[in-house]
Design a protein that fits this description.
37% of the residues lie in helices and 25% in strands. With 198 residues, it is an alpha/beta fold. Strands 1, 2, 3, 4, 5, 6 and 7 form a 7-stranded mixed β-sheet that branches. Helix 2 (33-42) packs across helix 3 and helix 4 packs across helix 5 (137-147). The longest helix is centred in the first third of the chain and has 19 residues, at 47-65.
Length: 198
């Protein structure tokens, strides 16, 4: 049976795969996301292009070390008014992100690229639109006091699987995609390839 490797240290992605009963190993793929994102943005790359490229860089890096495995690379970007948001640099930046997003709609794009035998064999980019409630400054401050630093690694400064769900009035799209792994599409691909039973 083909060994499956998730090229990510993301706890939520690993949890989703485990809960789906998919056997895998996880190896973090360390890449310079900021440099890749900046270079692609300078060249006019879209949010979709950047999410896809970051996922591919991660898959390629781990696939080079494990050529006999099937490697899943993932990444997620947040697009707001044509700009990409990064993970907050600190508490003040996290507060600023929520103030900027409140009462507004933004997009999350979650990309998957699968490598086998050193080559990309499948890719998918899921997209979700989220409308944030018009939160007061007081609510944002209290939300941060309860959730920081647990959300420090989350672009947009929220985790929907936790208290972040209270920040939104509407979500259009797949819940798994919000969490950074378009699970249904991945399960469909792995089933079709015979990697998992279906």
């Amino acid at each position: 049976m083909t060994a499956l490797i998730l090229a990510s240290a993301s706890e939520i992605r690993q949890t989703l795969l485990r809960q789906a009963g998919i056997p895998f190993k996880a190896h973090a793929a360390r890449i310079d996301e900021a440099t890749i994102t900046a270079a692609m943005s300078d060249e006019g790359g879209t949010a979709r292009d950047i999410a896809d490229a970051l996922a591919e860089f991660k898959a390629r890096k781990i696939a080079a070390k494990h050529p006999d495995a099937m490697v899943i690379g993932c990444d997620q970007v947040l697009e707001f008014r044509g700009n990409l948001l990064s993970k907050p640099t600190g508490l003040e930046d996290a507060i600023s992100q929520l103030i900027m997003l409140r009462g507004q709609q933004h997009k999350l794009l979650s990309a998957i690229v699968v490598y086998e035998n050193g080559e990309p064999i499948w890719r998918h980019v899921g997209q979700v639109r989220l409308l944030m409630r018009d939160l007061s400054d007081d609510y944002i401050a209290k939300y941060m006091s309860r959730n920081w630093p647990g959300i420090a690694d989350s672009v947009g400064s929220y985790k929907l699987e936790q208290e972040g769900s209270r920040l939104f009035s509407r979500i259009e799209g797949d819940y798994f995609t919000v969490l950074g792994l378009p699970l249904l599409e991945l399960v469909g691909f792995l089933t079709q390839r015979g990697v998992i039973e279906g």
